[in-house]
C-alpha cells in the first residue's frame, strides 16, 4: 500500500524541482535588475531626453516610442485576431483545410522574431513604402502577436459550454446575436489572457523594430505614425553593446523601466480580466 504514496511523493518532488528550476532563475534576474536599476530611477531619468551620446539624460523618448508601438500593435492585432478566432470557432466547418489553418496559426506563434522583422521590412517599409516608421513597426509587431491572440481567443470561445448557444438559439436569437451577447462576454477572460501574452512579447522584442522603426539616437518625440521612434528594447541593446562608457546603473535602469512597463500593462489587463471573470456564471 505504500508504493502508490511513495510514487506520488517522488512525482511531487520532481514537479517541485522543475518549478524551482524555472522560478528561481527568473526571480534572481528580477532581483538583480531591481537592485542595480532602482538607483537610476528618478524624474530626470524618466522624463528627460538622452544627452551626451546617450551616456546621460533620460529615456523618455524610448518610453513613449515603446508605448506607441505596443498600442498600435494591439489596435491592429486584437480585432483581426478576435474575428479570425470567431470564424474558426463558430462558423468554419471541421475539415482538413481548417485543421491545417489551425496548425499553421499555432506554428506561426513559434516563428523567430527576426523573421517577422524581415517580413515587415519587405512588406511595410519597402513594398507599401511606409518607410521606417511607427506604422511599419506596429503592423509588424501586430502580425507577430496575431497567432497568440487567435489561438488564445479560439480556445476561450470553444470553452464556453454549448448549452449556452443552444438555449440562446432556441429563444430565437440569431447566430451572431448568440456570439455577441452570450459567447463573447463569457470568453473575454481567456481573450484577455492572449492579449496579455501578446503585450509582453510585443513590448520586449528587438528584432522586428530594428528593421522597421527603431532609431539609434533620436532625442525628440515622434509627431506622426510615419516618424521613426526610439524603443526601450533597442535602446537597451544600443547602450549595452554599441555605446562605450555607459554607466551600469543606466543600463539596468533601462531594463528596470522596460520590466516595469510590461508589468503595469499586464496588471491592467489582469484587473480587467478578473472583473469579467467574476461575472461568469459557470
In words, what does this structure look like?
The chain is mainly alpha-helical and 282 residues long. It has one domain: MetI-like (MetI-like fold, Orthogonal Bundle), CATH 1.10.3720. Helices cover 75% and strands 1% of the residues. The protein contains 11 helices and 2 strands; from the N terminus they run H-H-E-E-H-H-H-H-H-H-H-H-H. The chain has helices spanning 2-37, 43-47, 60-91, 96-108, 113-127, 134-158, 162-170, 175-204, 207-212, 232-241, 248-278; strands at residues 50-51, 56-57. Strands 1-2 form a two-stranded antiparallel sheet. A hairpin with a 4-residue loop joins strand 1 and strand 2. Helix 3 (60-91) packs antiparallel against helix 8. The longest helix is centred in the N-terminal third of the chain and has 36 residues, at 2-37. The protein starts with a helix and ends with a helix. The relative contact order is 0.15. The mean pLDDT is 89.
